[in-house]
Design the sequence.
C-alpha cells in the first residue's frame, strides 16, 4: 500500500493546492467572506469524491449552513461500513504580513506545504481521497462520506446527527480533523475536553463616581469582579472550583519544552498548575477569562467603576457533563460575594466532551495500520479543544467506533500564520487509512490482520 500511495502523492498534492486556493472562510463577520467560495469548495470536494468512486447524494442543506457533502460506496457482502468525516471551510488568515508566502497559494518548501487550510483540514479531505484511490474506488469496506462546510464557526449541523441517525449509520467513523501529536509519531486521539461558557457581572453603583470623593467606601464593581475571578484558582494556578473532575492522564504527552514552544510561553514565565501536563490540559478543568468589559487605559477616568463584566471559558474532563460543570461554576461564583457584592452569572453555550471506547475491532485495525505506516508504535493522545460534531455523531450512532486521526501534527500552526502540513505526515496518514480499510475488513470477516 505504501508504494501505491507514494505514486498517488503528486496528484494528491496538486489537488490540495487547488483546494487551498479557494478562500472558503466560514467566519460570518469576516469582511471578505462571501458564500461563493464555500460553494466553490463544495463543488470541488464533490468532484474529488465522485472521481474517487463515491456516489454523491443530495447535499444536506440546513438553515444558514453551507451544504454538507454526502456520499456512499455500498459495502461488500458482510463487510463493515466506515464513515469518513472532514470539513472544507477554513478560518481567516489573520495578520497577512506574518505569512511568509501567500495564504491562499499552496507553497511547498522544506518538506511542507504551506497555506490556510493545508493542515486544517483540506489535507484530511485528500487523505480520505487518497485512501479511496489506493483501492481504485472499490475499498473492502462500505463508505459513507460526510464533509461539512461550517465546522470552524459551528452551525445547525453541529447538533443535527441525532435527529437523523439513519444518515450516519456506520460501524466505524474516521474523523479526519486531527493528526500526530508530534511529527513521526502515529497518533489516535481518544479524548476531547468538553466546554462551557458563562458571563459574570458585578453592578454596584447607578453610575461612575469621582474616585477622590467616593473611593475607599463606594463599592468598586471592577475590584469586586477581579477578586471573584482571582478566587477561581489556587496559589499554584490550578482550578479551585469544587466538583470539576480531574484525573491523571496516562497516554502520550508533550515534554515541558515542547509545550513551552507550542504555547509560545515567554522566557522565564512558569506554567500554571501542578501535576502532569496531560491532566492540566486534557483530563482536568481549565477556566480562562476570554474577555472583560472595562474602560481601556487610554480612556480611563478617575472614577469608581459602577459595572464590570467578564466572559469565562470553562474546559472540562472529557466524560463530565458540561451542563453539570457549568452549573457548578455558576453556583461557586454566586456564592463568593466579594466584599459583600452579589454577582450575576449567566449560562451560555456548552459543548460535550468525548472519550472513545478503544477495545473494538476498528481500533485494533487502526492501531496496526498507523504503526505500519509510520514504522513505530501507535500512541493514544487527547486534545483540550472541543469538536461538538464528534459528540453529536456519537449520540446518533452510539455503537460506532470513533477514530480521530489525520494529516496534521502539533506544530502545524493551525489557525495561525504559516499553517503547514508536512508532506511525509500527509503521505503516511493516507497510507494508514488505506491499510485500515483492509485490516478492518479482514478483522470483521474473521480473517485476522491483513
Sequence:
Amino acid at each position: 500500500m505504501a508504494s501505491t500511495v507514494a505514486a498517488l502523492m503528486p496528484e494528491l498534492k496538486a489537488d490540495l493546492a487547488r483546494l487551498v486556493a479557494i478562500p472558503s472562510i466560514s467566519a460570518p463577520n469576516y469582511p471578505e467572506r462571501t458564500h461563493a467560495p464555500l460553494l466553490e469548495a463544495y463543488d470541488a470536494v464533490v468532484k474529488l469524491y465522485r472521481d474517487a468512486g463515491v456516489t454523491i447524494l443530495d447535499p444536506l442543506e440546513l438553515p444558514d449552513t453551507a451544504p454538507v457533502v454526502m456520499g456512499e460506496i455500498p459495502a461488500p457482502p458482510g463487510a463493515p461500513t466506515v464513515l469518513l468525516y472532514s470539513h472544507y471551510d477554513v478560518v481567516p488568515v489573520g495578520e497577512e504580513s506574518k505569512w511568509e508566502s501567500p495564504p491562499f497559494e499552496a507553497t511547498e518548501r522544506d518538506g511542507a506545504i504551506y497555506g490556510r487550510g493545508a493542515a486544517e483540514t483540506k489535507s484530511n479531505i485528500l487523505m480520505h481521497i487518497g485512501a479511496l484511490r489506493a483501492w481504485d474506488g472499490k475499498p473492502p469496506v462500505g463508505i459513507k462520506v460526510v464533509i461539512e462546510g461550517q465546522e470552524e464557526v459551528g452551525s445547525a449541523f453541529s447538533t443535527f446527527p441525532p435527529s437523523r441517525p439513519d444518515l450516519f449509520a456506520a460501524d466505524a467513523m474516521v474523523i479526519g480533523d486531527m493528526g500526530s501529536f508530534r511529527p513521526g509519531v502515529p497518533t489516535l486521539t481518544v479524548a476531547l475536553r468538553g466546554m462551557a461558557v458563562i458571563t459574570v457581572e458585578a453592578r454596584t453603583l447607578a453610575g461612575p463616581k469621582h474616585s477622590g470623593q467616593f473611593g475607599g467606601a463606594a463599592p468598586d464593581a471592577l475590584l469586586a469582579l477581579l477578586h471573584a475571578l482571582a478566587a477561581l484558582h489556587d496559589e499554584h494556578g490550578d482550578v479551585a472550583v469544587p466538583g470539576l473532575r480531574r484525573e491523571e492522564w496516562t497516554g502520550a504527552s508533550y515534554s515541558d519544552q515542547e509545550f513551552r514552544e507550542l504555547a509560545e510561553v515567554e522566557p522565564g514565565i512558569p506554567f500554571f498548575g501542578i501535576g502532569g501536563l496531560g491532566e492540566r490540559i486534557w483530563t482536568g478543568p481549565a477556566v480562562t477569562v476570554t474577555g472583560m468589559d472595562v474602560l481601556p487605559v487610554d480612556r480611563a477616568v478617575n472614577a469608581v467603576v459602577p459595572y464590570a463584566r467578564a466572559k469565562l471559558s470553562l474546559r472540562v474532563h472529557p466524560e463530565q457533563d458540561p451542563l453539570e460543570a457549568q452549573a457548578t461554576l455558576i453556583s461557586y461564583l454566586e456564592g463568593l460575594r466579594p466584599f459583600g457584592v452579589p454577582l450575576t452569572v449567566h449560562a451560555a453555550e456548552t459543548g460535550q466532551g468525548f472519550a472513545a471506547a478503544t477495545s473494538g475491532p476498528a481500533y485494533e485495525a487502526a492501531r496496526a495500520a498507523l504503526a505500519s505506516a509510520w514504522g513505530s508504535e501507535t500512541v493514544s493522545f487527547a486534545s483540550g479543544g472541543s469538536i461538538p460534531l464528534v459528540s453529536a455523531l456519537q449520540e446518533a450512532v452510539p455503537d460506532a467506533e470513533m477514530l480521530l486521526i489525520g494529516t496534521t501534527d502539533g506544530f502545524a500552526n493551525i489557525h495561525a500564520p504559516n499553517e503547514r502540513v508536512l508532506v511525509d505526515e500527509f503521505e503516511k496518514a493516507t497510507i494508514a487509512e488505506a491499510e485500515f480499510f483492509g485490516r478492518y475488513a479482514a478483522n470483521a470477516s474473521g480473517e485476522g490482520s491483513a
Notes: The two ends are 11 Å apart (CA to CA).
